[in-house]
Amino acid sequence: MSGSGIAAIIVVGLVVIGYGWYISLITRRNRAQEALSSIDVQLRKRHDLVPNVLKLARRFMAHEKELLDSLTTLRSQAQASYRVDVPEDVAKHLAAEGALQTGLARLFAVAENYPELRSSETIITAQQTYSEVEGHIAAARRFYNSAVTRLNNAIQIFPGNLIANWANVRAMPFFELEDTAVRAPVDADSYLGNA
Amino acid sequence: MAIEFEETNPRLRGFAAYYDREIAGHMDDFEAARRASIWRALPIAGLGIVAAAITGAIFGTGAGLVDLPWFGHEKTDLTWIPLVATVGLFAWAWSVVAKSKHKLKVFLAEKVCGFFDLAYSPHANGFPLAWFADLGLVPGFDRSTVEDHITGRHDQVSIKLADAKLKKRQRSGKRTSYRTVFQGLLCAFSFPKRFNGRTVIVSDHGKILNWFQGLAVPGERVHLEDPRFESAFEVYTSDQVEARYLLTPTFMERVLALAEKYRSAKLRLAFDGDRLLLSLDLRADSFEAGSVFETAADPKRITSLVEDISLIYDLIDTLGLTLKTRA
Known about the structure:
The complex is a heterodimer.
Chain A: H1 3-60, H2 65-79, H3 87-111, H4 115-119, H5 121-156, H6 160-167, H7 180-183, H8 188-192
Helix pairs in contact in A: 1-2, 1-5, 1-6, 2-3
Chain B: H1 15-23, H2 27-61, E1 65-68, E2 74-77, H3 80-115, E3 118-123, H4 129-134, E4 143-154, E5 157-172, E6 175-190, E7 199-203, H5 207-216, E8 220-222, H6 227-232, E9 233-237, H7 240-246, H8 249-261, E10 266-272, E11 275-281, H9 299-318
Antiparallel strand pairs in B: 1-2, 3-4, 4-5, 5-6, 6-11, 7-9, 7-10, 8-9, 10-11
Helix pairs in contact in B: 2-3, 3-9
């Protein structure tokens, strides 16, 4: 076989590999976007829950006005529209959702100090629904993060980085939550007593 | 005959007293029936031995080839007549003892299940075997025997299970034979979470075999983050989010613990139609009550039944199905 024949075979081989990689990148990006939209489906359930919880909380938790108002703000920030193909927008959206979740967790923690609210059947049902919704959101987050891991690996491994750059496929952000319970300062008094 | 049980397992507390009250009193009758059945079967089996000896002799001497005038004086082989008689006599003798064995088994299984507040039926008519087959929880089969149907509740968990033996037809030349492809338990439990989709968990067999397995199991492959779980199982689902809602890290740990506990058995699970379905290929017959040649009150009969039924609770406890948490 002549040198030009071998070169032609190599070029065709490279094109086939490159095209295969391109298909894989696009498939993985679409998968990550699909996973993102499944998070949004679950997040909508959380958004629907917030007004009812706030309405009930306002009746009993007059002293927590600041917390309740911040939740309203966080909800509208989380509901703001964003572009799924712009990683920065996605990161901002996911951060807003993380803040809303932290706020809601704080609300339910503070509600423990209000026996009347705690014993209200509506808040008990709301808390159960909240925990179920959070279970679904956690599941959607795991699906999304798994899809993003697969996408980002394909983008970062050579020649994926070259193809991704050419095809304008960008790495997507992970949906990470701030674990407030872990990050909160430890109250040594509760362990050592006040003596 | 007195029988003693170790009641170290808290679930068996009170079983010795229950045995004395509900079972022991009937054992003399069953023992008499067992002995009578063996005495009835012995002469039949004796005739079978004679028939077998005749068959052997005919084979040895070639006396089975007889010149029959109504077949145009051609030699006709009649060896099959004593052969059929031999098989028939032994089958008859076995059916006589099997009847008394079956009665004893049903009595003991009903009583032992009764102690655990479970209902037992030797027949599993209407057990949804096709459901397990559709989900790929059992291998393809051509013949099935499903028996020992047990139903009931444990805490809030509803239980439905049966013992199944499935066989696949295979041909070699002109001969057709049946190979056992599954022998074990098929269970359906209620699950503390609500779900609508279908998620199936099967063993991992390596990339190539997994690909073939994926053709038989409905749904799309799920990539989970637990590497131990990923190397032990393959998960297929109709809903990626719901699969992760059901398969939390805690639940994956429980499934791994169960697989570790029954390492020699093949474990498959599925979530479908508000139930957790589970198949456990033990390669052994469960809920049997021992040999007909042992006395009716042989303690092994009861202990093996109790062990089999304890396995159901073990499955429920290891998978944490009674827990109210949503983990």
